[in-house]
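Blinded run. Sample ID left blank on purpose so nobody reads anything into the name before looking at the predicted structure. Input follows.
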Amino acid sequence: MNQKIKEKELLLNLKASKERRDVLKENLKTAQAEYDKTESELIEFLEAHSAVATAKYEGVGYAQLQKPRLYASCREVNMPDLIAFVESQGRGDLVKTSVSSQSLSGFASERIGEGLEIPEFVSYYLKSSIRLYA
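Blinded prediction complete.
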């Protein structure tokens, strides 16, 4: 009987933790959207007033526009051209060949599921998890 009580206690704790986690995730999503919107509004406000910073307020501080950060990307179909261009500019050091851990995990799982070998230089482990059903 003691084992059943412990099992139920663990299940109740797991359910409560999941519910708290889900609420926090939703709160974070809402807070991030609010932050992004307010940041955008403040940037627009400063730019509309040709300002680079807000005034300094007691207990709050101030905000200052930073140099815009550039984000570049390239479609996969253009990757060979990009690699050739980067290398022709003497920046071959930017070119990296890699396999993401998520992709490697999926590939290894496929091979194991098909009964095929995985090379010894690929390490892996199995992590147990629980799905809660209400």
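Unblinding after everyone has recorded impressions. The chain has three helices and no strands.
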